[in-house]
Design a protein that fits this description.
Elements (H helix, E strand, L loop, with lengths): L8 E5 L5 H10 L4 E4 L14 H10 L3 E4 L1 H4 L9 E2 L2 E2 L1 H5 L2 H14 L4 E5 L8 H12 L4 E4 L5 E3 H12 L9 H16 L6
Parallel strand pairs: 1-6, 1-7, 2-3, 2-6
Antiparallel strand pairs: 4-5, 7-8
Helix pairs in contact: 7-8
């Protein structure tokens, strides 16, 4: 893996990490601000990750907190952003609110080290990778994902794992970007938020 400074910004999934370990991961990566991209910044099982408690803890540790789940979250409130009951990341990425959220992240990156945070430990199980990081890559940025062991996986390596995960043979005559787009679509369909019936 690579040093955190080799990436333009970072992401992390809090999962079931103890608060101390979570803060240590951020500090080891020189994170100055956590941008929370959870649609609902609340955790009943791990209350230290609920928005207010987390913001207070991070502030005590010298890390800023920004809530961006309303514009960059993976569980849209608008029913038009679901396709067959599954959150449609392509439709979400096309919204002006989403692009404005990305602008806010990029603006914040100009001042300090940003880390996007969601709940899922594995980047390939989370919209922070499959939706938000993908959109940032399209803007020419190089995200990295802080893994539970503290290593940073560059997004390009995550995309390689994505291609391996969804399978399919590489085709010399087919545009690799189309294969990657299909892999993103398939993985998003497998893990994206669903409307409860």
């Amino acid at each position: 893996m690579i040093p955190p400074g080799a990436c333009d910004l970072l992401t992390i999934g809090h999962s079931n990490l103890p608060a101390e370990r979570f803060v240590a991961l951020l500090q080891n990566a020189d994170v100055a601000v956590v941008a929370d991209v959870r649609s609902v910044p609340f955790s009943r099982r791990f209350p230290w990750f609920s928005g207010k408690a987390l913001a207070a803890r991070l502030t005590r540790e010298g890390v800023s907190y920004i809530a961006l789940g309303d514009v960059l979250g993976g569980r849209p409130r608008d029913p038009k952003l679901y396709c067959e009951g599954i959150a449609d990341y392509e439709a979400m990425a096309a919204r002006p609110e989403f692009r404005a959220g990305l602008d806010r992240v990029v603006d914040e990156m100009g001042r300090q080290r940003v880390c996007l945070m969601c709940a899922e430990r594995e980047p390939l199980d989370c919209h922070r990778c499959l939706l938000v990081s993908r959109a940032l890559v399209k803007r020419g940025l190089a995200p990295g994902h802080i893994l539970a062991d503290g290593t940073v996986e560059p997004h390009a390596a995550t995309e390689k794992r994505l291609l391996d995960l969804v399978g399919g043979e590489a085709d010399l005559f087919r545009d690799p970007s189309i294969r990657l787009a299909e892999a993103y679509h398939r993985r998003a369909r497998a893990v994206a938020a669903r409307v409860k019936a």
